[in-house]
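dumping this here before i forget
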Amino acid sequence: MVKGEYTLVSTNSGAITVRWKDVPTDATSNPTSVGLNCGSSGTTTRDVFVSSISNKTPGPLTVNNTAVGAQYALPFGDNTALTLKVPLVELPQSSANSVYLAALTYDWVIPANWKYNDGTNYVSDGSTLHRVSGSSGNQISVTPAPGTGGTISVRAVNNNCINASTGPDNSISKTLSVDVGRPTPTFTIISDKSPSGGGFSLTCGDQSDYHFRTATGPVPAGGAFSNYAFRFSGPITPTGTVNSATPASSFTGATGTVGVDASALYSCNGASTTVYAPNVPVTVQPLPRPIISSSLGTSNPAGPYPVLCPGSTATFSTAVAGANSYTWTATGGLTVGGAATVTTTGASSSVTVAAPGSGNGQGSLTVTATNTSVSSCASPASVAYNVVYGGPPAHNGTLTMHSDT
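structure:
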């Protein structure tokens, strides 16, 4: 009678040969023993302890005596030798054997093109196991390739068991894996509008060169950026070469969304890689709606409205950033500059509005701002400024007449 997870190898004249599977002995889930039925004498049993490490994982991994987690960042281009180490994996023992034992054989895998500094100078292909045995099998020295990352993995092997040399009797632990990244110095796009990087907004008509350029984080000795290339999309035009860290460009002034991208070649210790800066979005918006101010004060759209006496005048003004032309329109008998419509030029605008010389009524004034250097760069019309003339207002532009006393 055999208990536990095993494979029957052979039986011969009352003798059996079994191979215990790589499953830890456990009183609950995997009790292991061998029993012999001796007829009237009963059954004689012997406990068997399987010193399996299949449920153990080595770790943590240390790199140059510093513990690392599942991710390890090694700067791109760094080819300084590294010492990789995991604590020895202790072998489980039966209660009858309290002697400390540890696995002394470890299977390592390092990223492709990295070299083992163990006398073999074996260059890894990134997948083949490299077995290291002895009291320091849990520690290796490697030289990274300057431009490749990948995975460092290690597992322990218990080959202290009987017949371990045959291979299948070895107990193999779980595998510890650490991903190695190869970060480059930060590479971003900045401008006069965003000296720390990032997007921004403009109004249409703006045709400035805000001097887009690249910025990098600290560059280690031996590292350098080259082969710059900017790409622009939307209402922006390069005015010189884009293959520069400081290209010249200008906005067309039209509305829309601009995208600015940049790339460069980063090189260090003989390795090179193309890096890309985060996209910088710029939104070019229409001119904002003008706001009218007047010597008459504020006109409440719901009334009562300001009053102009017959034949009298008032001054109205507005200013919109980015505009260079303003078109004013008067209704209801009011005139602006002597006409129903007038256009002025300049960064701001001020006009004189006159009421008719006689009669009573209500009129309004609106203004639209534009930038004449760019097609389709105009604001929405302002909120109407309402005025009554010829008498005091009642509400909503109606008039109440009073007799002389």
